[in-house]
């Protein structure tokens, strides 16, 4: 029986899976549990202490999924509704984290969506334009992250400026297109290092999407995205394109 285009593309896209040692898997699992615990804590905290911008009630817990304890400390000191006023660097960090929330959720939806529905890879060019499943994941991640990031920005910027739907969407696109792109470029860059160099060299293959190692690597990659997106957000705020938080 000849393979179908779908099975062929999936076969081409499936690289060798790394064999991770049990202690590393345990450590990575613990790190993910800590991040989820931080997200749950903040989700409860923003209910008890409502944010000035309602959308931040979703943004802050999502940022904990990649920022974990570091972002929790930042939230408690600068992001809480009862926190003192923040300076330019903290405001830009909050702006950048706001951008990252959409990217974090987009990566979760995109990666698990592709794993659950492999045909999505074919839709975005897997097997015809390229042969690597990782690239298909990146394409889907970017599309979902972009849509969610613009939505988060719309619900921040439209109420702040008193804009209607159309004007609010245009403003959101202007405010977040460059910052989301910068974030994803930084994130993809480090994930490429993990998946194409580090994991194969040390463990004989790539991390699968259902492995704790994949998502801990993604946490580091998201921080790289933050580093790349921070100066872009600072520039957008200085130009008045984006609102300082």
Q: What's the overall average pLDDT, rounded?
A: 89
Shape: globular
| Residues in helices, as a percent range | over 70%
In total, the number of strands is 0
Overall tally of domains: 1
Q: What amount of the residues lies in strands? A: under 5%
Gyration radius over CA: 19 Å
Q: Segments where pLDDT lies below 50 for 5+ residues?
A: 1-14
The biggest beta sheet reads: none
Cα end-to-end separation: 59 Å
Task: Specify the structural class.
Answer: mainly alpha
State the helix count: 8
What does it look like?
Pfam families: DUF4396. The chain crosses the membrane at residues 20-43, 55-76, 135-157, 214-237. This is DUF4396 domain-containing protein. InterPro entries: DUF4396 (IPR025509). Residues 89-242 form the DUF4396 domain. The chain is mainly α. The protein has one domain (20-238). 77% of the residues lie in helices and 0% in strands. It contains 8 helices and no strands. The chain has helices spanning 5-13, 22-48, 56-79, 88-116, 119-123, 133-161, 165-203, 212-238. The chain is globular, with a radius of gyration of 19 Å. It starts with a helix and ends in a 7-residue tail after the last helix. Residues 1-14 have low confidence and may be disordered.
Secondary-structure map:
Layout: H1 5-13, H2 22-48, H3 56-79, H4 88-116, H5 119-123, H6 133-161, H7 165-203, H8 212-238
Features:
single chain; 245 residues; mainly alpha; 8 helices; 0% strand; globular; disordered N terminus; transmembrane helix
What is this structure, in a nutshell?
This protein has 245 residues and is an all-alpha fold. The chain has helices at residues 5-13, 22-48, 56-79, 88-116, 119-123, 133-161, 165-203, 212-238. InterPro entries: DUF4396.
